[in-house]
Give the backbone structure.
Amino acid sequence: MAVSTRPVSSGPTDPDRRLSVLFTPKLVTVLREGYGLRELRADAVAGLTVAVVALPLSMAIAIASGVSPDRGLYAAIVGGFIISLVGGSRFQIGGPAGAFIVLVSATVAQHGVDGMLLATMMAGVILLGMGALRLGSYIQFIPYPVTVGFTSGIAVIIFASQIKDLLGLSLQAPEPGPLFAKMPVLWHSLPTVTPEAVAVALGTIVVIVGVKRLRPGWPNLLIAVALAAGITALADLPVATIGSHFGGIPQGLPLPSLPALDWAKMQAVLPSAVAFALLGSIESLLSAVVADGMTGRRHRSNCELLAQGTANIGSALFGGLCVTGAIARTATNIRAGAHGPVAGMIHAVALLVFVLVAAPLAAFIPLAALAGVLTIIAWNMVEKEAVWTLLRASRGDAAVLLVTFLLTVFRDLTEAIIVGFALGALLFIHRMSHAVSVEAHVPPVGVDKADGTPAERAPYRPRVTTDPGVVVYRISGAFFFGAVSTVGSVLDRIAAAHNVLVLDFAAVPFIDSSAANTIYGLARKAQRSEVTVYLAGASSGVRRDLLTHGLRQPLVHWTPTVDEALERIRAAGADTSAT
Protein backbone atom coordinates (compact mmCIF):
# COMPACT_ATOMS: atom_id res chain seq x y z
CA MET A 1 0.00 0.00 0.00
CA ALA A 2 1.42 3.35 -1.03
CA VAL A 3 1.75 5.97 1.65
CA SER A 4 1.77 9.66 0.79
CA THR A 5 4.85 11.53 1.97
CA ARG A 6 3.21 14.92 1.48
CA PRO A 7 3.05 16.73 4.82
CA VAL A 8 -0.40 17.42 6.16
CA SER A 9 -0.72 20.83 7.75
CA SER A 10 -2.96 21.24 10.72
CA GLY A 11 -2.30 24.92 11.13
CA PRO A 12 -2.98 27.96 9.00
CA THR A 13 -2.38 27.54 5.29
CA ASP A 14 0.55 29.40 3.81
CA PRO A 15 -0.90 32.36 1.84
CA ASP A 16 1.20 31.79 -1.29
CA ARG A 17 0.34 28.12 -1.40
CA ARG A 18 -3.33 28.88 -0.81
CA LEU A 19 -3.35 31.37 -3.69
CA SER A 20 -1.61 28.88 -5.94
CA VAL A 21 -4.32 26.33 -5.22
CA LEU A 22 -7.13 28.83 -5.77
CA PHE A 23 -5.83 29.86 -9.18
CA THR A 24 -4.46 26.56 -10.47
CA PRO A 25 -6.33 25.47 -13.65
CA LYS A 26 -8.15 22.18 -13.39
CA LEU A 27 -6.18 20.91 -16.40
CA VAL A 28 -3.03 21.03 -14.27
CA THR A 29 -4.81 19.15 -11.50
CA VAL A 30 -6.01 16.46 -13.89
CA LEU A 31 -2.55 16.00 -15.41
CA ARG A 32 -0.98 15.73 -11.94
CA GLU A 33 -3.43 12.96 -11.07
CA GLY A 34 -2.18 10.95 -14.03
CA TYR A 35 -3.47 11.10 -17.58
CA GLY A 36 -3.23 8.22 -20.01
CA LEU A 37 -4.75 6.72 -23.13
CA ARG A 38 -7.90 5.62 -21.31
CA GLU A 39 -8.63 9.13 -20.09
CA LEU A 40 -7.84 10.59 -23.52
CA ARG A 41 -10.27 8.20 -25.18
CA ALA A 42 -13.06 9.21 -22.78
CA ASP A 43 -12.39 12.90 -23.35
CA ALA A 44 -12.26 12.45 -27.12
CA VAL A 45 -15.69 10.78 -27.21
CA ALA A 46 -17.18 13.45 -24.95
CA GLY A 47 -15.54 16.30 -26.85
CA LEU A 48 -16.82 15.11 -30.22
CA THR A 49 -20.29 14.63 -28.76
CA VAL A 50 -20.36 18.18 -27.44
CA ALA A 51 -19.02 19.55 -30.74
CA VAL A 52 -21.97 17.98 -32.56
CA VAL A 53 -24.32 19.83 -30.21
CA ALA A 54 -22.36 23.10 -30.30
CA LEU A 55 -22.10 23.29 -34.10
CA PRO A 56 -25.69 24.27 -34.98
CA LEU A 57 -26.23 25.99 -31.65
CA SER A 58 -23.29 28.39 -32.05
CA MET A 59 -24.47 29.47 -35.49
CA ALA A 60 -28.08 29.87 -34.32
CA ILE A 61 -27.07 32.04 -31.34
CA ALA A 62 -24.90 34.24 -33.58
CA ILE A 63 -27.69 34.79 -36.10
CA ALA A 64 -30.19 35.57 -33.32
CA SER A 65 -27.64 38.06 -31.92
CA GLY A 66 -27.66 40.03 -35.16
CA VAL A 67 -24.29 38.89 -36.54
CA SER A 68 -23.11 36.33 -39.07
CA PRO A 69 -23.02 32.65 -38.01
CA ASP A 70 -19.25 32.36 -38.30
CA ARG A 71 -18.81 34.66 -35.29
CA GLY A 72 -20.60 32.13 -33.12
CA LEU A 73 -18.24 29.41 -34.31
CA TYR A 74 -15.18 31.59 -33.66
CA ALA A 75 -16.40 32.15 -30.10
CA ALA A 76 -16.93 28.44 -29.53
CA ILE A 77 -13.52 27.56 -30.99
CA VAL A 78 -11.31 30.21 -29.38
CA GLY A 79 -13.29 30.92 -26.23
CA GLY A 80 -14.18 27.28 -25.65
CA PHE A 81 -10.56 26.16 -25.97
CA ILE A 82 -9.25 28.82 -23.57
CA ILE A 83 -11.94 28.15 -20.94
CA SER A 84 -11.05 24.46 -20.88
CA LEU A 85 -7.31 25.16 -20.98
CA VAL A 86 -7.08 27.52 -18.00
CA GLY A 87 -10.50 27.23 -16.33
CA GLY A 88 -11.30 26.31 -12.76
CA SER A 89 -13.96 23.72 -13.59
CA ARG A 90 -13.07 20.20 -14.65
CA PHE A 91 -16.01 19.78 -17.02
CA GLN A 92 -16.96 23.31 -18.11
CA ILE A 93 -17.72 23.80 -21.80
CA GLY A 94 -17.46 27.41 -22.95
CA GLY A 95 -18.94 29.17 -25.92
CA PRO A 96 -21.71 31.56 -26.96
CA ALA A 97 -24.84 31.23 -24.82
CA GLY A 98 -28.49 31.96 -25.46
CA ALA A 99 -28.63 34.22 -22.41
CA PHE A 100 -26.41 36.73 -24.23
CA ILE A 101 -28.63 37.07 -27.30
CA VAL A 102 -30.58 40.00 -25.88
CA LEU A 103 -27.50 41.93 -24.77
CA VAL A 104 -25.44 41.23 -27.88
CA SER A 105 -28.21 42.07 -30.33
CA ALA A 106 -28.90 45.36 -28.53
CA THR A 107 -25.19 46.22 -28.52
CA VAL A 108 -24.81 45.41 -32.22
CA ALA A 109 -27.88 47.48 -33.07
CA GLN A 110 -26.61 50.48 -31.09
CA HIS A 111 -22.83 50.33 -31.58
CA GLY A 112 -22.26 47.98 -34.52
CA VAL A 113 -20.19 44.79 -34.64
CA ASP A 114 -17.00 46.69 -33.77
CA GLY A 115 -18.68 48.06 -30.68
CA MET A 116 -19.78 44.58 -29.69
CA LEU A 117 -16.24 43.25 -30.06
CA LEU A 118 -14.86 46.14 -28.01
CA ALA A 119 -17.47 45.51 -25.29
CA THR A 120 -16.56 41.81 -25.29
CA MET A 121 -12.88 42.61 -24.82
CA MET A 122 -13.63 45.11 -22.05
CA ALA A 123 -15.87 42.52 -20.37
CA GLY A 124 -12.92 40.15 -20.46
CA VAL A 125 -10.76 42.71 -18.64
CA ILE A 126 -13.52 43.20 -16.05
CA LEU A 127 -13.77 39.45 -15.52
CA LEU A 128 -10.00 39.25 -15.06
CA GLY A 129 -10.26 41.93 -12.40
CA MET A 130 -13.12 40.09 -10.68
CA GLY A 131 -11.10 36.89 -10.59
CA ALA A 132 -7.93 38.60 -9.37
CA LEU A 133 -9.89 40.28 -6.57
CA ARG A 134 -11.43 36.91 -5.69
CA LEU A 135 -15.01 38.07 -6.19
CA GLY A 136 -16.13 34.72 -7.55
CA SER A 137 -17.55 33.57 -4.23
CA TYR A 138 -19.84 36.62 -4.09
CA ILE A 139 -21.75 35.62 -7.22
CA GLN A 140 -23.59 33.08 -5.06
CA PHE A 141 -25.34 35.99 -3.34
CA ILE A 142 -27.54 36.56 -6.41
CA PRO A 143 -30.97 35.40 -5.12
CA TYR A 144 -32.44 32.31 -6.75
CA PRO A 145 -35.71 34.07 -7.79
CA VAL A 146 -33.59 36.63 -9.67
CA THR A 147 -31.76 33.97 -11.71
CA VAL A 148 -35.01 32.15 -12.50
CA GLY A 149 -36.73 35.43 -13.41
CA PHE A 150 -34.12 36.79 -15.79
CA THR A 151 -33.54 33.38 -17.38
CA SER A 152 -37.27 33.04 -18.09
CA GLY A 153 -37.41 36.60 -19.39
CA ILE A 154 -34.49 35.95 -21.73
CA ALA A 155 -36.28 32.85 -23.02
CA VAL A 156 -39.34 34.94 -23.94
CA ILE A 157 -37.19 37.49 -25.76
CA ILE A 158 -35.30 34.77 -27.64
CA PHE A 159 -38.56 33.22 -28.84
CA ALA A 160 -39.91 36.62 -29.90
CA SER A 161 -36.72 37.25 -31.87
CA GLN A 162 -37.24 34.02 -33.83
CA ILE A 163 -40.84 34.62 -34.93
CA LYS A 164 -39.68 36.29 -38.15
CA ASP A 165 -37.63 33.27 -39.27
CA LEU A 166 -40.09 30.73 -37.88
CA LEU A 167 -42.80 32.14 -40.15
CA GLY A 168 -40.53 33.26 -42.98
CA LEU A 169 -41.81 36.84 -42.80
CA SER A 170 -40.65 39.61 -45.10
CA LEU A 171 -40.36 42.81 -43.11
CA GLN A 172 -40.65 46.21 -44.73
CA ALA A 173 -38.38 47.80 -42.11
CA PRO A 174 -35.62 46.58 -39.76
CA GLU A 175 -36.99 44.49 -36.91
CA PRO A 176 -37.11 46.51 -33.66
CA GLY A 177 -35.39 45.12 -30.58
CA PRO A 178 -37.85 46.04 -27.77
CA LEU A 179 -40.79 43.67 -27.48
CA PHE A 180 -43.47 46.39 -27.50
CA ALA A 181 -42.09 47.82 -30.74
CA LYS A 182 -41.40 44.41 -32.30
CA MET A 183 -44.87 42.85 -32.02
CA PRO A 184 -46.78 45.44 -34.13
CA VAL A 185 -44.19 45.14 -36.91
CA LEU A 186 -44.47 41.35 -36.91
CA TRP A 187 -48.27 41.54 -36.81
CA HIS A 188 -48.46 43.78 -39.88
CA SER A 189 -46.08 41.42 -41.71
CA LEU A 190 -48.23 38.30 -41.20
CA PRO A 191 -49.58 38.38 -44.79
CA THR A 192 -46.02 37.60 -45.97
CA VAL A 193 -45.86 34.23 -44.18
CA THR A 194 -43.90 31.59 -46.12
CA PRO A 195 -45.62 28.17 -45.68
CA GLU A 196 -42.39 26.33 -46.58
CA ALA A 197 -40.49 28.12 -43.82
CA VAL A 198 -43.21 27.25 -41.30
CA ALA A 199 -43.04 23.61 -42.39
CA VAL A 200 -39.24 23.52 -42.07
CA ALA A 201 -39.37 25.12 -38.61
CA LEU A 202 -42.10 22.78 -37.34
CA GLY A 203 -40.35 19.78 -38.84
CA THR A 204 -37.10 20.76 -37.12
CA ILE A 205 -38.86 21.06 -33.76
CA VAL A 206 -40.63 17.71 -34.21
CA VAL A 207 -37.38 15.93 -35.12
CA ILE A 208 -35.52 17.46 -32.16
CA VAL A 209 -38.22 16.42 -29.69
CA GLY A 210 -38.76 13.02 -31.32
CA VAL A 211 -35.09 12.03 -31.41
CA LYS A 212 -34.67 13.21 -27.82
CA ARG A 213 -37.47 10.89 -26.67
CA LEU A 214 -36.76 7.88 -28.87
CA ARG A 215 -32.96 7.98 -29.02
CA PRO A 216 -31.70 10.20 -26.14
CA GLY A 217 -28.06 9.47 -26.93
CA TRP A 218 -28.25 10.71 -30.52
CA PRO A 219 -27.32 14.32 -31.49
CA ASN A 220 -30.88 15.54 -32.05
CA LEU A 221 -29.97 19.13 -32.89
CA LEU A 222 -27.48 18.16 -35.60
CA ILE A 223 -29.80 15.50 -37.04
CA ALA A 224 -32.70 17.97 -37.25
CA VAL A 225 -30.63 20.72 -38.87
CA ALA A 226 -28.95 18.32 -41.31
CA LEU A 227 -32.33 16.89 -42.40
CA ALA A 228 -33.75 20.39 -42.83
CA ALA A 229 -30.74 21.45 -44.91
CA GLY A 230 -30.90 18.33 -47.06
CA ILE A 231 -34.63 18.61 -47.75
CA THR A 232 -34.35 22.33 -48.46
CA ALA A 233 -31.52 21.79 -50.95
CA LEU A 234 -33.06 18.75 -52.70
CA ALA A 235 -36.54 20.23 -52.93
CA ASP A 236 -35.24 23.71 -53.74
CA LEU A 237 -37.58 25.24 -51.18
CA PRO A 238 -38.02 29.03 -51.30
CA VAL A 239 -36.71 29.68 -47.80
CA ALA A 240 -33.84 31.81 -46.57
CA THR A 241 -30.59 29.95 -45.84
CA ILE A 242 -27.21 30.85 -44.40
CA GLY A 243 -25.89 30.97 -47.96
CA SER A 244 -28.62 33.25 -49.33
CA HIS A 245 -28.62 35.54 -46.30
CA PHE A 246 -24.95 35.64 -45.24
CA GLY A 247 -23.10 34.23 -48.24
CA GLY A 248 -21.92 31.17 -46.32
CA ILE A 249 -19.17 30.75 -43.74
CA PRO A 250 -15.47 31.57 -44.32
CA GLN A 251 -13.31 28.46 -44.52
CA GLY A 252 -10.86 29.20 -41.70
CA LEU A 253 -10.19 31.44 -38.73
CA PRO A 254 -9.48 35.14 -39.29
CA LEU A 255 -6.21 36.64 -38.14
CA PRO A 256 -6.40 38.14 -34.65
CA SER A 257 -6.86 41.90 -34.56
CA LEU A 258 -7.71 44.52 -31.97
CA PRO A 259 -10.99 46.42 -32.27
CA ALA A 260 -10.69 50.19 -32.55
CA LEU A 261 -9.64 51.39 -29.07
CA ASP A 262 -11.30 54.78 -29.21
CA TRP A 263 -11.84 56.41 -25.79
CA ALA A 264 -15.27 57.80 -26.69
CA LYS A 265 -16.32 54.41 -28.06
CA MET A 266 -15.08 52.67 -24.92
CA GLN A 267 -17.18 54.97 -22.77
CA ALA A 268 -20.20 54.35 -24.98
CA VAL A 269 -19.98 50.54 -24.78
CA LEU A 270 -18.99 50.40 -21.09
CA PRO A 271 -22.56 49.62 -19.92
CA SER A 272 -22.67 46.69 -22.37
CA ALA A 273 -19.27 45.48 -21.19
CA VAL A 274 -20.39 45.54 -17.56
CA ALA A 275 -23.57 43.68 -18.48
CA PHE A 276 -21.55 41.08 -20.44
CA ALA A 277 -19.21 40.58 -17.49
CA LEU A 278 -22.00 40.35 -14.92
CA LEU A 279 -24.09 37.91 -16.92
CA GLY A 280 -21.01 35.94 -17.97
CA SER A 281 -19.85 35.51 -14.38
CA ILE A 282 -23.30 34.41 -13.23
CA GLU A 283 -23.81 31.97 -16.11
CA SER A 284 -20.34 30.44 -15.95
CA LEU A 285 -20.32 29.93 -12.19
CA LEU A 286 -23.89 28.64 -12.24
CA SER A 287 -22.83 26.14 -14.90
CA ALA A 288 -19.82 25.14 -12.79
CA VAL A 289 -22.10 24.60 -9.77
CA VAL A 290 -24.39 22.41 -11.87
CA ALA A 291 -21.37 20.40 -13.00
CA ASP A 292 -20.24 20.02 -9.38
CA GLY A 293 -23.68 18.72 -8.45
CA MET A 294 -23.61 16.16 -11.26
CA THR A 295 -20.10 14.88 -10.53
CA GLY A 296 -19.38 15.53 -6.86
CA ARG A 297 -16.37 17.66 -7.81
CA ARG A 298 -15.65 21.22 -6.72
CA HIS A 299 -14.76 24.06 -9.04
CA ARG A 300 -12.44 27.03 -8.36
CA SER A 301 -14.63 30.05 -8.89
CA ASN A 302 -11.95 32.74 -9.10
CA CYS A 303 -9.80 30.68 -11.43
CA GLU A 304 -12.89 30.20 -13.59
CA LEU A 305 -13.45 33.96 -13.73
CA LEU A 306 -9.86 34.47 -14.87
CA ALA A 307 -10.43 31.89 -17.60
CA GLN A 308 -13.68 33.56 -18.67
CA GLY A 309 -11.92 36.91 -18.89
CA THR A 310 -9.06 35.51 -20.96
CA ALA A 311 -11.52 33.65 -23.20
CA ASN A 312 -13.59 36.75 -23.92
CA ILE A 313 -10.48 38.73 -24.82
CA GLY A 314 -9.36 35.90 -27.10
CA SER A 315 -12.77 35.56 -28.72
CA ALA A 316 -12.93 39.31 -29.42
CA LEU A 317 -9.45 39.23 -31.02
CA PHE A 318 -10.72 36.64 -33.52
CA GLY A 319 -14.03 38.42 -34.15
CA GLY A 320 -16.15 36.12 -31.99
CA LEU A 321 -19.08 36.72 -29.67
CA CYS A 322 -18.77 36.95 -25.90
CA VAL A 323 -18.48 33.54 -24.27
CA THR A 324 -19.40 31.93 -20.98
CA GLY A 325 -19.90 28.51 -19.46
CA ALA A 326 -22.80 26.79 -21.21
CA ILE A 327 -24.95 24.70 -18.88
CA ALA A 328 -26.52 22.44 -21.51
CA ARG A 329 -23.22 21.69 -23.26
CA THR A 330 -21.45 21.16 -19.92
CA ALA A 331 -24.13 18.67 -18.88
CA THR A 332 -23.80 16.91 -22.25
CA ASN A 333 -20.05 16.71 -21.71
CA ILE A 334 -20.51 15.04 -18.32
CA ARG A 335 -23.14 12.59 -19.57
CA ALA A 336 -20.84 11.64 -22.45
CA GLY A 337 -18.25 10.43 -19.92
CA ALA A 338 -15.68 13.25 -19.96
CA HIS A 339 -12.71 12.84 -17.64
CA GLY A 340 -11.43 16.42 -17.58
CA PRO A 341 -10.82 19.70 -19.44
CA VAL A 342 -9.23 17.95 -22.43
CA ALA A 343 -12.77 17.11 -23.58
CA GLY A 344 -13.57 20.81 -23.91
CA MET A 345 -10.37 21.41 -25.83
CA ILE A 346 -11.18 18.55 -28.22
CA HIS A 347 -14.67 20.01 -28.71
CA ALA A 348 -13.08 23.30 -29.83
CA VAL A 349 -10.63 21.55 -32.15
CA ALA A 350 -13.47 19.53 -33.72
CA LEU A 351 -15.36 22.75 -34.48
CA LEU A 352 -12.19 24.20 -36.02
CA VAL A 353 -11.88 21.14 -38.27
CA PHE A 354 -15.47 21.68 -39.43
CA VAL A 355 -14.71 25.30 -40.32
CA LEU A 356 -11.56 24.29 -42.21
CA VAL A 357 -13.06 21.33 -44.06
CA ALA A 358 -16.85 21.48 -44.25
CA ALA A 359 -17.74 25.18 -43.96
CA PRO A 360 -19.35 25.31 -47.46
CA LEU A 361 -22.00 22.81 -46.31
CA ALA A 362 -23.31 25.34 -43.79
CA ALA A 363 -24.60 27.50 -46.65
CA PHE A 364 -27.50 25.04 -47.14
CA ILE A 365 -28.83 25.36 -43.58
CA PRO A 366 -32.23 27.15 -43.58
CA LEU A 367 -32.71 29.97 -41.11
CA ALA A 368 -36.10 28.50 -40.21
CA ALA A 369 -34.35 25.36 -38.95
CA LEU A 370 -32.02 27.38 -36.73
CA ALA A 371 -35.06 29.32 -35.48
CA GLY A 372 -36.60 25.97 -34.54
CA VAL A 373 -33.43 25.08 -32.62
CA LEU A 374 -33.58 28.35 -30.68
CA THR A 375 -37.28 27.83 -29.97
CA ILE A 376 -36.41 24.56 -28.24
CA ILE A 377 -33.56 26.28 -26.40
CA ALA A 378 -35.90 29.04 -25.22
CA TRP A 379 -38.44 26.49 -24.00
CA ASN A 380 -35.77 24.60 -22.08
CA MET A 381 -34.42 27.81 -20.54
CA VAL A 382 -37.69 28.40 -18.68
CA GLU A 383 -37.44 26.49 -15.40
CA LYS A 384 -41.12 25.63 -15.23
CA GLU A 385 -41.03 23.77 -11.93
CA ALA A 386 -38.87 26.44 -10.29
CA VAL A 387 -41.22 29.21 -11.44
CA TRP A 388 -44.27 27.40 -10.10
CA THR A 389 -42.53 26.63 -6.80
CA LEU A 390 -41.41 30.24 -6.28
CA LEU A 391 -44.84 31.60 -7.09
CA ARG A 392 -46.30 29.38 -4.37
CA ALA A 393 -43.43 29.72 -1.87
CA SER A 394 -44.08 33.23 -0.57
CA ARG A 395 -45.28 36.61 -1.71
CA GLY A 396 -41.77 38.01 -1.39
CA ASP A 397 -40.14 35.39 -3.62
CA ALA A 398 -42.99 35.67 -6.11
CA ALA A 399 -42.58 39.47 -6.23
CA VAL A 400 -38.83 39.24 -6.84
CA LEU A 401 -39.38 36.64 -9.59
CA LEU A 402 -42.11 38.59 -11.38
CA VAL A 403 -40.36 41.98 -11.16
CA THR A 404 -37.13 40.51 -12.53
CA PHE A 405 -39.02 38.70 -15.30
CA LEU A 406 -41.04 41.74 -16.37
CA LEU A 407 -38.06 44.11 -16.30
CA THR A 408 -36.04 41.63 -18.39
CA VAL A 409 -38.77 41.34 -21.01
CA PHE A 410 -39.91 44.94 -21.20
CA ARG A 411 -36.97 47.01 -19.96
CA ASP A 412 -33.34 45.90 -19.67
CA LEU A 413 -31.50 42.85 -18.39
CA THR A 414 -28.98 44.79 -16.31
CA GLU A 415 -31.74 46.84 -14.72
CA ALA A 416 -33.67 43.65 -14.03
CA ILE A 417 -30.74 42.03 -12.22
CA ILE A 418 -30.00 45.15 -10.15
CA VAL A 419 -33.61 45.74 -9.14
CA GLY A 420 -34.19 42.03 -8.51
CA PHE A 421 -31.08 41.82 -6.36
CA ALA A 422 -32.14 44.91 -4.40
CA LEU A 423 -35.62 43.48 -3.80
CA GLY A 424 -34.10 40.16 -2.77
CA ALA A 425 -31.78 41.92 -0.33
CA LEU A 426 -34.68 43.89 1.17
CA LEU A 427 -36.68 40.68 1.50
CA PHE A 428 -33.76 39.03 3.27
CA ILE A 429 -33.35 41.98 5.65
CA HIS A 430 -37.07 41.90 6.42
CA ARG A 431 -36.98 38.20 7.19
CA MET A 432 -33.83 38.45 9.27
CA SER A 433 -35.28 41.33 11.29
CA HIS A 434 -38.17 39.11 12.30
CA ALA A 435 -35.79 36.30 13.18
CA VAL A 436 -34.31 38.35 16.04
CA SER A 437 -36.16 38.00 19.34
CA VAL A 438 -35.97 39.38 22.87
CA GLU A 439 -37.35 37.07 25.51
CA ALA A 440 -37.36 36.80 29.27
CA HIS A 441 -34.68 34.47 30.54
CA VAL A 442 -35.89 32.47 33.55
CA PRO A 443 -32.83 31.41 35.56
CA PRO A 444 -32.78 28.01 37.25
CA VAL A 445 -34.48 28.08 40.66
CA GLY A 446 -34.10 25.39 43.31
CA VAL A 447 -37.14 23.17 43.85
CA ASP A 448 -38.03 21.94 47.35
CA LYS A 449 -37.90 18.14 47.41
CA ALA A 450 -40.81 16.21 48.81
CA ASP A 451 -40.04 13.65 51.47
CA GLY A 452 -38.80 10.40 49.93
CA THR A 453 -38.11 11.86 46.49
CA PRO A 454 -35.10 10.19 44.84
CA ALA A 455 -32.24 12.60 44.37
CA GLU A 456 -31.75 11.65 40.72
CA ARG A 457 -35.34 12.64 39.92
CA ALA A 458 -35.20 16.07 41.51
CA PRO A 459 -31.63 17.38 41.56
CA TYR A 460 -31.02 20.31 43.81
CA ARG A 461 -30.11 23.62 42.24
CA PRO A 462 -29.10 26.65 44.27
CA ARG A 463 -31.84 29.26 44.47
CA VAL A 464 -30.97 32.57 42.81
CA THR A 465 -32.08 35.98 43.91
CA THR A 466 -35.79 36.61 43.68
CA ASP A 467 -35.42 40.37 43.74
CA PRO A 468 -38.14 41.75 41.41
CA GLY A 469 -35.84 44.62 40.52
CA VAL A 470 -33.51 42.22 38.64
CA VAL A 471 -34.51 41.08 35.15
CA VAL A 472 -32.65 38.87 32.69
CA TYR A 473 -33.41 39.02 28.96
CA ARG A 474 -31.93 36.97 26.16
CA ILE A 475 -31.41 38.35 22.63
CA SER A 476 -31.51 35.60 20.00
CA GLY A 477 -30.43 35.89 16.37
CA ALA A 478 -28.31 38.22 14.28
CA PHE A 479 -28.70 41.67 15.83
CA PHE A 480 -28.36 44.18 12.98
CA PHE A 481 -29.88 47.40 11.70
CA GLY A 482 -33.02 45.67 10.43
CA ALA A 483 -33.93 44.58 13.98
CA VAL A 484 -32.81 47.70 15.86
CA SER A 485 -36.24 49.33 16.02
CA THR A 486 -38.02 46.26 17.37
CA VAL A 487 -35.35 45.14 19.84
CA GLY A 488 -34.55 48.68 20.99
CA SER A 489 -38.17 49.50 21.88
CA VAL A 490 -38.51 46.29 23.91
CA LEU A 491 -35.28 46.90 25.83
CA ASP A 492 -36.22 50.50 26.61
CA ARG A 493 -39.44 49.37 28.27
CA ILE A 494 -37.61 46.67 30.25
CA ALA A 495 -34.85 48.95 31.52
CA ALA A 496 -37.27 51.59 32.75
CA ALA A 497 -39.01 49.22 35.18
CA HIS A 498 -36.10 47.51 36.96
CA ASN A 499 -33.01 48.25 38.99
CA VAL A 500 -30.70 45.72 37.33
CA LEU A 501 -30.83 44.57 33.69
CA VAL A 502 -28.88 41.53 32.50
CA LEU A 503 -28.66 41.06 28.72
CA ASP A 504 -27.72 37.58 27.56
CA PHE A 505 -25.80 37.71 24.23
CA ALA A 506 -24.96 33.98 24.10
CA ALA A 507 -27.40 33.40 21.20
CA VAL A 508 -26.23 36.42 19.14
CA PRO A 509 -23.84 35.29 16.33
CA PHE A 510 -22.94 38.82 15.24
CA ILE A 511 -23.86 42.44 15.81
CA ASP A 512 -23.45 45.47 13.56
CA SER A 513 -22.76 49.13 14.34
CA SER A 514 -26.44 50.10 14.41
CA ALA A 515 -27.23 47.44 16.98
CA ALA A 516 -24.13 48.24 19.07
CA ASN A 517 -25.12 51.89 19.09
CA THR A 518 -28.60 50.88 20.27
CA ILE A 519 -27.13 48.99 23.23
CA TYR A 520 -24.88 51.96 23.98
CA GLY A 521 -27.88 54.31 24.01
CA LEU A 522 -29.74 51.91 26.29
CA ALA A 523 -26.78 51.76 28.71
CA ARG A 524 -26.52 55.56 28.83
CA LYS A 525 -30.24 55.85 29.53
CA ALA A 526 -29.98 53.17 32.22
CA GLN A 527 -27.05 55.00 33.82
CA ARG A 528 -29.09 58.21 34.08
CA SER A 529 -31.91 56.21 35.71
CA GLU A 530 -29.42 54.51 38.07
CA VAL A 531 -30.10 51.09 36.50
CA THR A 532 -27.15 48.70 36.46
CA VAL A 533 -26.57 46.84 33.17
CA TYR A 534 -24.76 43.52 32.81
CA LEU A 535 -23.74 42.09 29.41
CA ALA A 536 -23.29 38.33 29.60
CA GLY A 537 -22.26 35.48 27.31
CA ALA A 538 -21.05 37.57 24.35
CA SER A 539 -18.71 35.90 21.88
CA SER A 540 -15.32 37.46 21.26
CA GLY A 541 -16.50 39.12 18.04
CA VAL A 542 -19.67 40.55 19.56
CA ARG A 543 -17.75 41.71 22.66
CA ARG A 544 -15.14 43.43 20.49
CA ASP A 545 -17.82 45.32 18.51
CA LEU A 546 -19.61 46.42 21.67
CA LEU A 547 -16.38 47.55 23.31
CA THR A 548 -15.51 49.55 20.21
CA HIS A 549 -18.77 51.47 20.63
CA GLY A 550 -17.92 52.46 24.23
CA LEU A 551 -19.65 49.75 26.22
CA ARG A 552 -17.06 49.55 28.98
CA GLN A 553 -17.09 49.69 32.73
CA PRO A 554 -18.50 51.48 34.65
CA LEU A 555 -21.18 52.05 32.00
CA VAL A 556 -21.81 48.28 31.81
CA HIS A 557 -20.47 45.18 33.53
CA TRP A 558 -19.19 42.19 31.58
CA THR A 559 -19.57 38.56 32.66
CA PRO A 560 -18.93 35.29 30.79
CA THR A 561 -22.35 33.83 31.72
CA VAL A 562 -25.71 34.85 33.08
CA ASP A 563 -25.16 32.71 36.19
CA GLU A 564 -22.01 34.63 37.03
CA ALA A 565 -23.83 37.92 36.55
CA LEU A 566 -26.53 36.79 38.98
CA GLU A 567 -23.90 35.68 41.51
CA ARG A 568 -22.29 39.11 41.35
CA ILE A 569 -25.70 40.77 41.77
CA ARG A 570 -26.43 38.63 44.84
CA ALA A 571 -23.02 39.36 46.27
CA ALA A 572 -23.48 43.09 45.73
CA GLY A 573 -26.89 42.88 47.42
CA ALA A 574 -25.43 41.01 50.41
CA ASP A 575 -22.67 43.59 50.79
CA THR A 576 -25.24 46.35 50.73
CA SER A 577 -27.35 44.64 53.37
CA ALA A 578 -24.33 44.14 55.65
CA THR A 579 -23.45 47.76 55.31
Notes: The chain is about 65% helix and 5% strand.
